[in-house]
Amino acid sequence: xxxxxxxxxxxxxxxxxxxxxxxGNEVCGLYYNPNxxxxxxxxxxxxxxxKFSEIKQFNVFYYPDLVVEVDSLEELDLxxxxxxxxxxxxxxxxxxxDAVSTSLLCNLDLDHEKILEIGHKxxxxxxxxxxxxxxREGFLEGQEMIEELGLY
Length: 152
Prior knowledge:
Blueprint lengths: L1 E6 L2 H13 L3 E7 L6 H18 L3 E4 L9 H23 L3 E4 L9 H15 L12 H10 L4
Parallel strand pairs: 1-2, 1-4, 2-3
Helix pairs in contact: 1-2, 1-5, 3-4
């Protein structure tokens, strides 16, 4: 299966991408993270994603949108999840991917149910399956992998 994986950072993406590739899927990443504040933090994450993709030998699309300003916590949630997942579905549809997923599904601190809700909403809208595996079980494994590789 050809899967486009939204990547918020290498730490959250390491486990899902490795797992999907080990299962024989063709995975491509999309680094898009408009809610990261400061250019320095954004670039550290982007650099780590790019280096990880080179090590694991998969392609990454890179959207350098830096900061999206928000006026409320509700808007912040939409920025954190909705914009990133929607952009991934748009690109997935345009490029003919079989499914779309997100590394947000690996993070233990995020609202997993909200991420699933948004992913399934865009799956219907763009007519592409949302690969909604619960990757949280591998979160610590992914963190260790990134540390061993010396990445951020």
